[in-house]
Design brief:
Layout lengths: L2 E9 L2 E8 L8 E9 L2 H7 L16 E7 L11 E3 L10 H4 L31 E4 L2 H4 L1 E2 L6 H4 L5 H11 L7 E5 L3 H12 L4 E6 L2 H10 L3 E4 L5 H8 L4 E6 L4 H10 E9 L22 E4 L6 H12 L9 E6 L3 H9 L7 E5 L1
Parallel strand pairs: 8-9, 8-11, 9-10, 11-12, 12-13, 14-15
Antiparallel strand pairs: 1-2, 3-4, 3-6, 3-15, 4-5, 5-7
Helix pairs in contact: 5-6, 6-7, 8-9
Length: 354
């Protein structure tokens, strides 16, 4: 068996580069040589032991690369094609996929909650020299000529997720939108609200570097929650409450503040991953009869989603390269996790070059 280097999870706090078997493509599969990937906040939860995956798994779920092997059953692709693959790899054939719920893909059967997220979760992932792509016909998105790996790598996960926060929230032209937290996901939600034509975008965080980036991504007003009463300031700026509040952190406090900022009939679009109990206080919820909508979204994937996002980059409407603050070779991945995890040196996203 030929070998490759990959970042292997071994248990809480234990991970690093190992030599492992290189994958080969079976029916309906492809192998790509990874040319660029990155580290997600979710990978931090994995290596810290806060989200469980099986020891021995190669982690990472944001791949850009070149097709190396094409398994039987694929059409329209050639070895050497440059491709982007979403973090979520729907099968394209199950009940969930064919009903339009690609991220909750159940593969051969019906729906499976979060079932579309396989890379670095239930199958080997992208922080490696080579990656086996399942259901490749539904997931290999060819990169248009002229776009660099750096221009598209963040579309696989954080941009698809963040922008979906604005889409699921039903942002309309002229809407007021407040985005709680300006981590990579929140910054992309801010960019998404701008793309959809929001009138006023208010971005909340406490990190000066990230608040400055929020302005670059399209925020009109940035608020540091340590220094202002965010809810009353949003109510004042929006003259009564936001049309859409986007939650991009995953805490009780930010979820609740999202609700409290909304105008009656507004939409809370939630992207955060919560732990423990999440409560809805009756007063923030108009006792249940305020005509609110609460919607949650898992990162949309599949090749059509990737094509649409790349189209926005190609047309000049979306530039995420300022978010890629650092780059490391694969063999320095532990250092990359440290810089990213501790947010050192202004890190927002780090690129990994296998
Ligand atoms: N829905 C999805 O598909 C999906 C995908 C990936 C990640 N996520 C989730 O999205 C969330 C955000 O991810 P990320 O990588 O951008 O997070 P991150 O940890 O990198 O950033 C969080 C940001 O929140 C800010 N913050 C902390 N407390 C705050 C407060 N009270 N109010 C406002 N801002 C505050 C921090 O300063 C930081 O900038 C996480 O819960 C993550 O698990 C969801
Ligand atoms: Zn992720
Ligand atoms: Zn499916």
């Amino acid at each position: 068996m030929d070998k490759m280097f990959a970042n292997v999870f071994r248990g809480a706090g234990k991970f690093g580069i190992e030599e492992v078997d290189r994958p080969h493509a079976g029916v309906g599969e492809a192998v790509i040589r990874v040319t660029l990937t990155t580290i997600c906040g979710t990978d931090l939860h994995i290596v810290r032991g806060e989200y469980t995956v099986r020891p021995g798994l190669v982690i990472g779920h944001e791949p850009v690369g070149v097709i190396e092997e094409i398994g039987p059953g694929l059409s329209g692709y050639q070895v050497g094609d440059r491709v982007l693959i979403g973090a979520i790899t729907p099968c394209g054939q199950c009940r969930a996929c064919l009903s339009g719920q690609l991220s909750q893909c159940g593969r051969t059967s019906g729906y499976e909650a979060i079932g579309g997220w396989r890379f670095g979760n239930t199958i080997n992932g992208a922080q490696a020299q080579y990656l086996l792509v399942p259901n490749a016909q539904a997931n290999l998105a060819k990169i248009p000529d002229g776009l660099t790996d750096e221009q598209v790598v963040l579309l696989a996960d954080i941009a698809s997720t963040g922008i979906s926060g604005a889409e699921s929230g039903g942002v309309r032209i002229g809407d007021s939108v407040v985005v709680f937290a300006q981590g990579p996901i929140g910054l992309c939600a801010t960019a998404g609200a701008r793309l959809l034509g929001a009138g006023l975008i208010i971005a909340i965080d406490s990190d000066e570097n990230r608040l400055a980036m929020a302005k670059r991504m399209g925020a009109d007003v940035v608020l540091d929650y340590r220094h202002v009463d965010v809810v009353s300031e949003v109510k004042r700026l929006t003259e009564g409450g936001s049309d859409v509040s986007i939650e991009a952190l995953g805490t009780q406090e930010t979820f609740e503040n999202c609700l409290r900022c909304l105008r009656p009939g507004g939409t809370l679009s939630s992207l955060g991953v919560y732990s423990g109990k999440l409560q809805v206080p009756y007063d923030a919820f108009a006792a249940g009869i305020g005509d609110y909508r609460v919607i949650t979204t898992l990162c949309p994937g599949g090749k059509e989603r990737m094509r649409r996002l790349m189209e926005m980059v190609k047309r000049g409407g979306l530039d995420l390269t300022p978010l890629l603050t650092h780059v490391f070779p694969l063999d320095k991945i532990r250092e990359a996790y440290r810089i990213f995890g501790e947010r050192l040196d202004g890190a927002i996203k780090v690129a990994i070059k296998p």
